Structure formats: structure tokens, C-alpha cells
Amino acid sequence: MLMAYNEQQQIFLPYQYSREALQRYRRQMKFYCPQCQQPVQLKIGKYNIPHFAHIANNSCVQLFAEGESKLHLQGKVQLFEWLRKLGHTVKLEPYLQKFSQRPDMLLIKEQKQIAIEFQCSTISHEKWLLRTSGYENNSIQPLWLFQTPQRQSTQGIQKISISPIMQKMIIATARGLAYLVTYDANTSSFIYWTNLLYVHGHTFIGKVQELTIHKQHFPFYEPKSISKEEFLLYWQLYKKHCKQFVYQRLLHSKNGVQDSFLRSCYELRFALTALPDYVGVPVKDAEAIPMFSIEWQTILHHFCRRLQLAPHELNEGNIRSFLIQQNVELTNQTVQAIKNYVMVLAKSYKENDCFPDICEQVYAHLFAIATIY
User: Fold this and answer.
1) What CATH fold (topology level) applies to the domain 68-147?
2) pLDDT (tens digit, 9 = 90+) per residue, 305-363?
3) Contact 245/292 with Cβ under 8 angstroms?
4) Which segments of 223-259 does DSSP mark as H helices, in order?
5) What does residue 300 show for φ and ψ, rounded to 5 degrees?
6) Closest by alpha carbon to 331, among 294, 282, 289?
7) What band does 63 get if pLDDT is binned at 50, 70 and 90?
8) Cβ proximity of 228 and 235 under 8 Å
9) How far apart are CA 307 and CA 319, in angstroms?
10) pLDDT-based confidence at 34, cuts 50/70/90?
11) Which residues form the Competence protein CoiA nuclease-like domain (predicted)?
12) Which of 11, 8, 46, 40 is nearest to 26 (CA)?
């Protein structure tokens, strides 16, 4: 922990002092845990940020993150000082006795409390949900900031891997643009993963931007929509992923002609090396369907062929029948994903299965609803 009480019951923050001063204070003063009031040790190592630790076998240990990494300690200090310098009322590692939780920071803003958790290590869904619910049930807004994965580039349009737990931190602007903010304690920078486009599983395409802590305000900035020119890069990356999916399916499918996707391609006379642009189209709500877009959309076209209907002629009953046939759970979101797809097709369709402006319509559907769609 980064703070403790001294003998005068004053808060002591060791990171604010020099190494020499801390060595002197350690000889002259005693320090106590703000939660259990038991003595704690002042650690002044050469590697870690100065901090306190409970004496071994102390019963209070379970409510503290003992053995925190240097990166976690460093990030908490950076974020705490950043908020203080912006003039916010913020507490470091406060113990919330009412429900026995200790956020990394507690920010009080306009009579609203925000619990800030800087997460450097892996956390289970169950633990995340328990802590999040604890805050929400006590009228405290949780804000989770994950340490930026070190393998991820911090600039430009690119393919991004977002773990399931981090996907829960994705938020949307008023215009529905999905984005995620992480923090890199190594570089003291916030990383914005903006205009997120779901591909499949953990894979997204997004525009990544870096903002140093000295330029960051709170609340965070809201990202702007990408341009049509930038979306062309998204489209190229997405279609590249479609081709990789088809190639892997050909290599690893064990069902042969019973594979619904491959069978549909054969019946529709789709060339697997050059599938038409109107299948494998990213649409809103597609993450609700547990199949890659190029798969379910190809099967949908085969379904339409058997019904002798164009996709935009499907009614809700047809859509529900299709989802049931594919063993996809019937929810408002799965139905809406199909509706979104056929709507994009309808706006782009000309004649004879020709979709000359499908890319532009997808851009309008995903990123420019307010101005174009």
C-alpha cells in the first residue's frame, strides 16, 4: 500500500520523500495500517516505489494487494498526482468500511463518487463483477483503467486483440462510437482505442491514439468518427481477416459437405478464393451472433435462395426461422444484427446481385449515422 498513518494519525505518503529522508523517518517513526491500525513496515527498496506492507500473518492482508508490482504502484501514484494537479478531490487507497472494499483511488466530483481501479494483473470475471457490483450497489461509479498491453502498438489503424474482461470496459459516445481507454504506466500515457469495429472473438479493428498524462483531462475526451478514407483501411483489414477465416476453414473443417458454410458457398457458386464483397460485412450488433460475419451471411444468402427471396425482402419471421435453424439464441440483438445487414444490402443493391457501393454504405451504417445514414 502507498499510504499509512504515522503516530500523530497523519497520512504519510512515502513516495513524496527522498530515499535518505525515508531512511531517517523509518528509524524515528512508527506507521500504522489505516484499516486495522496494526503496525506496518516501510519498504524502501531500490527497485519498487517506497510503500508499506503488513507484518507477516496479519489478518488484514486479505483486504490489501500485498506484493503489488512496481508497475501497479507506479501507475497509482501517477494517476493520483494527475487528478490532484487537475484540482479534483481524490483519495488514495481509501477503505470503504460500509462494504469492505478499497479502490485504488476515490474521486469526488459534483457530489458523485467515482472509484478508480488501475488493473495491471489478470482478474477473473467473477472478481471483477463482485467488485463492480459492490461499488454500484453503494451509488459509486466504478472506473476500470487497464494497463495497456505491451504488445499493442499505440498509433494508427490496426487489428487489436481485446480480452473478454477488457471488452466489458468498452463504452460508446453519444453517437454510438465504441472506444476503450487504457493507461500505460511505463510511458505515463493514456491510450485511446477508438472507433472499435468488432471482427470475431477477441479481434477488433480500431484507430489507436496516444495522449500523455500532461495533456489528458478528466472526464476523458470523446473520440471523433473516422473519415471515409480511414474506413477504407478498416475495410481492407476486415476483408483480409475474412480471407484468413475461409482459408482456415478449408484446412480444418471436419464436416466436409455437411459444413453449412462450405455447402452454402458451393450451392451459391461462390469462389472461396474470391467471395463477393457483400458477404463478410461488418454490421452493428454482429457480436451477438457466435459466428464470423462471412459465415452467417453466406448461409443467410443460401437461406434466401431457398425461399426465393432477396435478403431485403426477409420479414422478422424469416429472420427468426434462420436463427433457429443455425442454433443461434433468439434475442433482440441477434435479430437486429440480421436486420442491420439486410438494411445495408438494401441501400446498396442495384440489380443482378450487384452492390457497387457496399463499402460506402457500411461506413455510413457504422460511423456516420448522424450525417449520412
Assistant:
1) Trna Endonuclease; Chain: A, domain 1 (3.40.1350)
2) 999 999 989 999 999 999 999 999 999 999 999 999 999 999 887 756 667 789 999 99
3) yes
4) 228-252
5) -65, -40
6) 289
7) low
8) no
9) 12
10) confident
11) 68-218
12) 40
Q: What phi and psi, each to the nearest 5 degrees, are found at residue 226?
A: -70, 160
Q: Is the Cβ–Cβ distance between 15 and 77 less than 8 Å?
A: yes
The SS3 of residue 169 is coil
Q: Which residue(s) pair with 198 in the sheet? A: 204
Q: For cell 476523458, what's the residue?
A: 220
Apex 30 CA angle, 27 and 34, nearest 5: 145
DSSP letter for each residue of 68-118: --HHHHHHHHHHHHHHHHTT-EEEES--BTTTTB--SEEEEETTEEEEEEE
Give the residue extent of every domain in the chain. 1-66, 68-147, 156-224, 231-367
Q: 197 and 281 in contact (C-beta within 8 Å)? A: no
Residues 6+ apart with CB under 8 A from 1: 33, 40, 51, 52, 53, 64, 65, 93
